[in-house]
From TrEMBL:
Family as reported in the entry's similarity comment: Belongs to the class-III pyridoxal-phosphate-dependent aminotransferase family.
Organism: Planococcus salinus
Matching InterPro entries: Aminotrans_3 (IPR005814), Aminotrans_3_PPA_site (IPR049704), PyrdxlP-dep_Trfase (IPR015424), PyrdxlP-dep_Trfase_major (IPR015421), PyrdxlP-dep_Trfase_small (IPR015422)
Keywords, alphabetical: Aminotransferase, Pyridoxal phosphate, Transferase
Name of the protein this chain belongs to: Aspartate aminotransferase family protein
Domain of life, per lineage: Bacteria
One GO molecular-function entry: transaminase activity
SUPFAM superfamilies listed in its UniProt record: PLP-dependent transferases
Organism lineage: Bacteria, Bacillati, Bacillota, Bacilli, Bacillales
Amino acid sequence: MDQLIEWDKKHFIHPTSSIRDQQEKGAKVIFEKGEGIYLTDKNGKKYIDAMSSLWNVNIGHGRKELGEAARQQMDQLAFSSAFSTFSHEPTIQLAKKIADLAPSNLNAIFFTSGGSESNDSAFKLVRHYWRIQGQPERNKIVSLKRGYHGVAAGATSATGIPEFWDMAGQLQSGFVHAATPYWEGTQGSIKSIREVIEAEGPETIAAFIAEPIQGAGGVLVPPSDYFQEIRKLCDDYGIVFIADEVITGFGRTGTMFGLEHSGVQPDMMTFAKGVTSGYFPLGGVIVSDQIHGVLKEKSMGTLFHGFTYSGHPTAAAVALKNIEIIEKEGLVENSRKMGELLLEGFKKLKADLQIIGDVRGVGLLGAVELMEDPSANKRFSPELKVAGKVIEALHQRGVICRAVAYEGTDIICFSPPLVIKEEEVKTLLEKLREAISEVA
Ligand code: PLP
């Protein structure tokens, strides 16, 4: 164990981490196995994985069927190219399956290995779409403050959380941000987007991108009329609407895709995470029939965009098995039902514990927001790191959650595996009550 910690410090640069902390403290937990909603570390301590790790292990840990699907596919054909006119059956089957699940106007898929690659691919595809129609000046992307779209060059630039730009500077030009509806309401956000578009020049705007629910920004649920208004706004200006369903896709919010709650169809949708529940890296962009039609008609020569793993047969086999499990076991429905229980529990906690300012949730994507004085809308001083302390108290009790503390907020996020059961939701809520009570 000591040796592992030493090698971890010396050789492993952790993603999204404090390199200094890692050097000083070493790995806090070395996970060894997972089953259902639980993870166990090398010391035998068991945790509820209340974040589905990174909002992605939708079917829960330890599902042997996925390993079996990967093994069978690897035995037969682990990998071959999908470039140009090469193809293979699992990826064709998966494209068809996703087209069947997605909104009826979205039927063609470009595959990637994750969410960031998907969003960067969407930005390139949408710029290409305008170029081949003789409008190369339409190249800017509008996104929302507190939105999170990943860490590749375009995805970082579209992300509306400034902390992500500090590391290497704003990576790309042509990305502009408008107010989130969570704090500004539908009309406030729409007004802000219109102002941004007018200031930049509507003829320079290629697309608008948003998550149906802002996840990493703090599970910020928009008002129910928001995406209807977004659809109208995008149609008014003739701009492409990209839904980033990387977290909300594949059952997370109690529907197959998050935007289904508003009944709105986007022009492009990006996905990743829940498509394989993390058992294999995979993501993609689904484009509308209209966009696909323009690409087919006007895109000349080679589309110079393709990752080695765009259309990985083993990833596709794993995704097909994962989606089969989601459907067979009714996990979308379970997400809705257990999400209702979780939200009800959050509401009870809010009634009892004075420092809870807001609770929210759609399906199994939820959050509890802490405030020093909710009646005065007064937040805690950031130096107190209140959310961080609650996360630590949860950790001590064997629950893994995530704190969001941007712009002085103290938010505890929840995104448990969709297989969670009623008793487990209750345990989670009890531990949350204890942890918050201990801190304040
Ligand atoms: N988009 C959203 C909404 C996300 O939450 C994430 C990751 O958390 C991404 C994109 C980036 O995905 P990845 O980390 O797979 O690149």
